[in-house]
Amino acid sequence: MLSKKGGCFMKGYALIGKNKTEWRDFSMPKINPYGAIIETKVVSPCTTDIHLLETGAVDNPSLIGKPMGHEMAGIVIEVGSEVKEFKVGDRVLVSATQANFRSLEAQAGMSKLADTNQYWMDDPERGGTFVEKYYLLDADMNLAHIPDSVTWEQAVMTPDMILTAFEGVREANIEFGDSVVFIGVGPVGLMGVQAAAIRGAGKIFAVGSRQVCFDVAKELGATDTIDYHDSDYVEEILKRNGGPVDRVVISSGTEDSLSIALKLVKRGGIVCNLASYFGHSSISIDLEAWAFGASDKTIVSPLCPGGRLLMDKMLKLIENGRIHPEKIITHKFYGMEKIEDAMQLFINRDRSLIKPVVFFD
Amino acid sequence: MLSKKGGCFMKGYALIGKNKTEWRDFSMPKINPYGAIIETKVVSPCTTDIHLLETGAVDNPSLIGKPMGHEMAGIVIEVGSEVKEFKVGDRVLVSATQANFRSLEAQAGMSKLADTNQYWMDDPERGGTFVEKYYLLDADMNLAHIPDSVTWEQAVMTPDMILTAFEGVREANIEFGDSVVFIGVGPVGLMGVQAAAIRGAGKIFAVGSRQVCFDVAKELGATDTIDYHDSDYVEEILKRNGGPVDRVVISSGTEDSLSIALKLVKRGGIVCNLASYFGHSSISIDLEAWAFGASDKTIVSPLCPGGRLLMDKMLKLIENGRIHPEKIITHKFYGMEKIEDAMQLFINRDRSLIKPVVFFD
Amino acid sequence: MLSKKGGCFMKGYALIGKNKTEWRDFSMPKINPYGAIIETKVVSPCTTDIHLLETGAVDNPSLIGKPMGHEMAGIVIEVGSEVKEFKVGDRVLVSATQANFRSLEAQAGMSKLADTNQYWMDDPERGGTFVEKYYLLDADMNLAHIPDSVTWEQAVMTPDMILTAFEGVREANIEFGDSVVFIGVGPVGLMGVQAAAIRGAGKIFAVGSRQVCFDVAKELGATDTIDYHDSDYVEEILKRNGGPVDRVVISSGTEDSLSIALKLVKRGGIVCNLASYFGHSSISIDLEAWAFGASDKTIVSPLCPGGRLLMDKMLKLIENGRIHPEKIITHKFYGMEKIEDAMQLFINRDRSLIKPVVFFD
Amino acid sequence: MLSKKGGCFMKGYALIGKNKTEWRDFSMPKINPYGAIIETKVVSPCTTDIHLLETGAVDNPSLIGKPMGHEMAGIVIEVGSEVKEFKVGDRVLVSATQANFRSLEAQAGMSKLADTNQYWMDDPERGGTFVEKYYLLDADMNLAHIPDSVTWEQAVMTPDMILTAFEGVREANIEFGDSVVFIGVGPVGLMGVQAAAIRGAGKIFAVGSRQVCFDVAKELGATDTIDYHDSDYVEEILKRNGGPVDRVVISSGTEDSLSIALKLVKRGGIVCNLASYFGHSSISIDLEAWAFGASDKTIVSPLCPGGRLLMDKMLKLIENGRIHPEKIITHKFYGMEKIEDAMQLFINRDRSLIKPVVFFD
């Protein structure tokens, strides 16, 4: 196990370059009056971390040398003088998107576009959540109290997995009884299945390829599981549904996904894209599926939102037993240094993996 | 048991006057090309029927002499020449609101306001659903196929109980994690609790007075049950919720309900009224609760909608195990003549009653 | 001039094949109880007609041998027995999209997808509006009374030009003060400019190439006109607007249009496509402009709607002086046979043409 | 004229008690890093000021002794170290509602409910805008640059008159061609008429009693003016409109207004209340007009919003010639001390008054 340093240093798991990481000591930040420092209790690596690792963060060179990670929960150990809602000792969830709410984007209801999360920012003093102690700029706006009955592992599924999926389902505007297809049932897709079920969907098709995901999809509300290796899976969905579906959510995408989604969805329906398409310059839309431009099919592409209010709402869903994010956790590690093992599962494309968590002690 | 007449007569349970009903023979209608005749399998009396009975339908004198009732399911026994989607032998649900979809109201998305349901219309040849054989004007628009896995008793909860409640919850526009209060947990209120739970509510407060309703409320998703006989129940809700709630749905109302709802709901929140206020000329709004006119509290008051599409969607929720309307049925009767016994439960204000159904054979 | 035939024949301008038309006699239809026959007073050819002519209607072979056209207004000369709202002698506007409102599509608020307009249907007895007398199936649903103060030429701009443009602007959901770009300022784009101006847009950029269109765009509310031949026109718009715009409406499109629109629109904004992309199998989306899938940019693609209610609303805008569709009419012809001359303007790509009308007498 | 003091004192027009005001010297505040000080150029008294004066601010005793006023524009003379978007010398508009955007209310899109405007706050150092120099807490969030082509008097109509009215019209969700009634055509009602016209309304009924208001209403887009002294004015509107209207906006209310509005609006329509009802404990809803609770009539009651983004949008409407707020200004005064004369117009219920402005030099 790594020795935990006291004083003004803390250990972090830093990205060094393409496929290279390193444990480094980082100096403790001096907090601003609105800030807080959180002792990390649990983190969860994500495919975005792997993407950054495997590309060496070519699109965000400022990330090199900084701690990785953006999903975490922990305990408040220091707060700035102006922090009103949080105090030392509180169990808290940290927002993955840490907006500057004093922004025109926030005034427009799009705070997520005013992200100041250090993970992404060009600020040498800031970094990700794979550290012993994590500093954030605006505690009152970007932390949330974890209710007693919510576990650490449930909590850490919230800032990215749940919020991305639930934002997608919200934007997909599912109505009571609607049929919905999820293309991709990794952790975000599975949380989407859960979201659709508690948003009132009727039939839910989970499109994937792994039995471990299908099993969880069924538990979370899918009515049908579909293997995309079957060459006629689009026709199979259309047949089982008795025609095109009301909504499609893409959480794992290839160059064909948008066109497939447009084929699956009915006119007047909505396609919600949650997938990232890196490494390509364009993606195409099949014109026949798009009715040559007059399809009345809407395409939305929401980014994960954040902030205290939304995290509070999601935590209420867990607290009241409406959703069960712990079901997507397939691997648990104990000890900060096990972040490496958790990352390795992604790198190996381990077919038993849905989502890992790493408890720091 | 009543003898069932063949040929051109059918038995019906008619409203004759204030607190007076009678079994009468009605002549069989001649159907139009778009119409259908349904052999009744199950009906359910409702508080609206009792209201009409106890007032002698003072506001709708044309109802006198006609069969009562508006909730039913049955089997198609005759269809007009232009009916495309239904055939003799089909198990079908009948819409309580039977819109004329060829209307400007329907073009405006408010087909429910172009209701041609015979129960309400000033047409001597038309009547309610408490008859052996029921005639409706437009089968393709106002019937729905009952899926094999949906029972008669589940189905008959759909046209009024489910559709009224789900319309209310839809108009209340509940967002993930929202806190919701239901004032009144009779059958519509309970279906509202269920609707809120599968629409993503967090905390759900069920306000009522009877244990039988509280028990079902808990099963359907309520987190808290509140007895309105407790003088401080409004404060109790505010305390448990940590402040005003996001949404309030009134399904059973008194002259105070709207003001109480406005006290309970937060600014920016929505109050949805599903209650009827007969016997009064006005209802008042507490101005302080309404912030003297600038509260940003929205008040909606939706009528039950109908039509095939919505019934199909609701039936999909039952078919896929999302909702459990059978839980609100407390009394089952067998034999058409038992409609009288079912009605008597309402008249007696039987405290064990939530919702009765009467199977015709 | 063509001789007008009485009795049971009427003259029509029929599509015969690729680049081939012919004047033919059509037998008068026998109307159904809900139908009506309209004596044509004015029609307007449209680019869709030209597309059908130049391709020989390859995608709709049933159109061959039928009258062309879908924009018209006229006088009622016969109504079916069940028609309630229209009588012989009424000045009426005919819906271009003639929905069957007795359909699940209409119940879903998408009546336009249940189009029974004879122009498009596989019914040998039905055809387009370039005829002396036009038969429609459902008068009460698909006609609208033309107010006295509205001229024939204003009226005939309604069923396609105005309704397509206004539906686009409605779906673009313009908010007060929003900046909007119109890519393409032909007749639909210009009506879009007008719609945006009376929907509360701030800055309106009209992107086109012809001075005649720019002049009308300015009159109808454009603040800036932009020539797309300027290689840096996208940058010019971004500069003048001080960054990306709130909304983009594409009414005239090439393979690049969708990507250009995504470059122009801000995150959180909406791109509305009204253009048709025939002759291609796919259209591409620039991934950088789409933020690799997480752009929060919404893409909508509405079809022209129809029906009496919407036409009534649009006619109210003309009647009350809110909009001035007559400004897009550049050419007027008198005499039914002049349809040929009007069509020729399109075929010649006449640079002075925005929209022609042909009065039948 | 009042002598303008330099140094650390500034003159202000303070509320002292019921019907009592006084010119006082206030010490200059020390600004925080996000704050700014604005030299006042123009203010406008409003009925809210008169209400506070005539009641002695019984409901807000902390206002006693402070400067009055909340509508102003001026020139930046000092900015805090963290202010990024404004500098000394800028012409700026000051938000009437000065939200703390670092709040859960703002995260919920309701920043107006987190108002920190000193006018309303229990902070002895803060006050209204009727001062030589005005201090606000968060310049980047609550100021807006006034475009060169926008005059001071146009600008000062924005923070309350325009924003209240436009918020009301936005919440009334007017669709193209809708008929709208404005009950009350004082300055907010008139700006509402303008808003409705540029939001796409068809017929606009302006209900009031003074010719000066009717004249401006016509200029701003009203199609019909209605005197509420005519005993049958409700019937007159219903007759002219051919039935109930789509939307009603109440900007000036009595105890009957809500019931009248519900009588005027169609089922499925919206009533938007912008009026304040002080001095009463409740307001009643006519149950017949509300269809006894199932009317599908929505009631909204929005407060005036604020913030830079919205002010920017409104200023763009002025800058681009879409709206003409200067038309509601009936009285102009020059010299700060003339605030008294402007206030007197309200006190006298001067029938020629719509809205006054006071230029400070």
From TrEMBL, chains A, B, C, D:
The keyword Oxidoreductase applies. PROSITE patterns: ADH_ZINC (PS00059). The keyword Endoplasmic reticulum does not apply. One of its GO terms (molecular function) is zinc ion binding. InterPro entries: ADH-like_C (IPR013149), ADH-like_N (IPR013154), ADH_Zn_CS (IPR002328), ER (IPR020843), GroES-like_sf (IPR011032), NAD(P)-bd_dom_sf (IPR036291). SUPFAM superfamilies: GroES-like, NAD(P)-binding Rossmann-fold domains. It comes from the Bacteria. Residues 17-354 form the Enoyl reductase (ER) domain. Signal peptide: none annotated. Its cofactor is Zn(2+). Keywords: Metal-binding, Oxidoreductase, Zinc. It holds the Pfam family ADH_N. Belongs to the zinc-containing alcohol dehydrogenase family. PANTHER family: NADP-DEPENDENT ISOPROPANOL DEHYDROGENASE, ZINC-TYPE ALCOHOL DEHYDROGENASE-LIKE. This is Enoyl reductase (ER) domain-containing protein. The lineage of its organism: Bacteria, Bacillati, Bacillota, Bacilli, Bacillales.
